[in-house]
Every structure is written in structure tokens, then in C-alpha cells.
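Subject: Sanity check before I submit

Could someone independently write out the C-alpha cells for this chain? I want to compare against mine line by line before I put it in a report. The sequence has 72 residues.
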Amino acid sequence: MTERVYKVIQLVGTSTESWERAASAAVERASSSLRDLRVAEIAELDLVLEDGAVTHYRAKVNVSFKYEDDAS
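---
Independent answer below. Compare away.
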């Protein structure tokens, strides 16, 4: 079996609609600049409040992708 190495980064997606949309925004943005995305894990969900009302949903997302160095 070939060994593989993956790198994990944390992104924060935001949305005025939902946590799902916030998480999707983070993954969609990551996919535009990273190759071989493998797994996305929701690390934390929170809300931005103004005057007691929800204005934004935030999703902290851990995204893993295949690690490649210059020797690959």
C-alpha cells in the first residue's frame, strides 16, 4: 500500500442564510485554489448577532487535501 500524506487547514465560511450555506461557501472557495480536496469536517458553528438578531451564520471547516511537495 502506498503511503499518503494530507494537509488540513481551517477555513471560516459565512452566510446570511444558513450554516449549511456557510460551510459550502468555505469548501467552494477552497476548491478554487486547492487540488484533491478529500474531507471537510465541521469544527464549530456560531452566529453573528446585531441588536439581538442573527445577521450571519459562520461555519469553521477543517478541509483536508493531498499534500504534495516540490519533489512529487
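---
OP: Matches mine. For the report I'm noting this point. The radius of gyration is 15 Å.
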